[in-house]
Specification:
It is a single chain. Helices cover 54% and strands 14% of the residues. The protein has helices spanning 21-31, 50-56, 69-82, 103-111, 133-150, 181-191, 214-232, 234-263, 269-320, 323-329; strands spanning 7-14, 36-43, 60-63, 88-91, 117-126, 162-165, 196-203. Strands 3-2-1-4-6-5-7 form a seven-stranded mixed β-sheet, sandwiched between helices. The longest helix has 52 residues, at 269-320. The protein is elongated, with a radius of gyration of 25 Å.
């Protein structure tokens, strides 16, 4: 059953987007006119009229302390956590590529309790020329890699058009404030057992100059995915590396043993030392994987405990609320 009383916060990172910010905000007002919502523009110290236009269109504006897309989102997330009345968060770009009219489609699976995080799939209905060839190939590759490594049910893991439950922010650990934050959010949500789904959206041509740096962003995203896989599946990650090194040392040691049995001599002391070193290194790395897997299991148990504690606290707080306050809340 749909819960129409959910309070929604729309987060829009912006930097010199005077051409489109007004249109995006008006679209959000139109899409959410039957909802309780707030529009928050996180400005990266724009030098044009972005801030004044956003204020004129009825949005709240805060200025991020750092720089970059991921840092802007994290500033918005902190605002959502401070605003205890926020139930759902929607994030989209200020460049007009994501149609605000699709917000209702993103919210629907959450409002019907079918998902906790919904991603807008840009590959469903892209306008011609909306995504350059290099970006399209990169997004396809990283989305496929994320599905393979983390079993994430999304064809477009790099999409910046999303809706999710605000309570998720209490359980997600963000370490990279840059473009990789999109991947980090999904993997963290998956690790915390939140339900993830996708909905088709139209992806439009942007107005103004793109701020993406494909090669640098690709390097950062790939490094983040490797780190996340290390944290998500430490036993498999370290086990593969340690196993390969262990096998190399074992084969080298077997070769030396056969030579010794045939000739009665150890032909290469350097190789014998190298074999011992590889064998011990492989065992050490596998041991690190076992310890990391134990730490991961402990972290998941603590996360589950914290979730139960927060749910019980919220339930007890609502139960103890005076009748008059409950009526006002309703």
């Amino acid at each position: 059953m749909e819960r129409s009383e959910e309070r929604i916060l729309v987060i829009i990172p912006a930097l010199n987007e005077e051409e489109t910010i007004g249109e995006v905000i008006r679209g959000c007002h139109e899409a959410l006119q039957r909802r309780t919502y707030e529009i928050l523009v996180v400005d990266g110290r724009s030098s044009d009229s972005t801030v004044s236009i956003a204020l004129q269109e009825g949005a709240k504006v805060i200025v991020q302390k750092g720089s970059g897309y991921g840092d802007a989102l994290m500033c918005g997330f902190k605002h959502a956590l401070r605003t205890y009345r926020t139930d759902l968060v929607v994030m989209l770009d200020a460049d007009g590529t994501y149609p605000p009219q699709s917000i209702e489609g993103l919210l629907e699976p959450i409002l019907h309790d079918k998902a906790d995080l919904v991603i807008g799939n840009r590959f469903a209905h892209p306008e011609k020329g909306s995504m350059p060839f290099v970006n399209r190939v990169g997004n396809r590759f990283f989305s496929a890699l994320s599905r393979f490594l983390f079993k994430i049910p999304s064809l477009d893991t790099q999409s910046g058009f999303r809706a999710f439950r605000a309570q998720m922010l209490n359980h997600l650990l963000f370490k990279n404030p840059g473009m990789p934050l999109a991947s980090e959010m999904i993997v963290e949500a998956k690790s915390a057992n939140y339900r993830i789904t996708q909905v088709p959206i139209t992806y439009r041509n942007r107005k103004g100059k793109s701020k993406l740096r494909p090669m640098r962003d690709a390097y950062l995203i790939l490094g983040t995915l490797v780190r996340l896989y290390r944290d998500y599946s430490p036993l498999l990650f370290f086990g593969m590396i340690g196993g390969i090194i262990l096998i190399m040392g074992g084969f080298l040691g077997l070769y030396l043993l056969i030579r010794y049995l045939v000739t009665g001599l150890v032909p290469h002391y350097v190789l014998a030392t190298l074999s011992t070193f590889l064998f011990l290194t492989g065992l050490t790395i596998i041991t690190i994987g076992l310890l990391a897997d134990m730490i991961k299991d402990l972290r998941e148990r603590m996360r589950t405990f914290e979730t139960h504690m927060m749910e019980n606290f919220s339930h007890n707080k609502n139960s103890e609320m005076p009748r008059s306050e409950k009526k006002e809340e309703e």
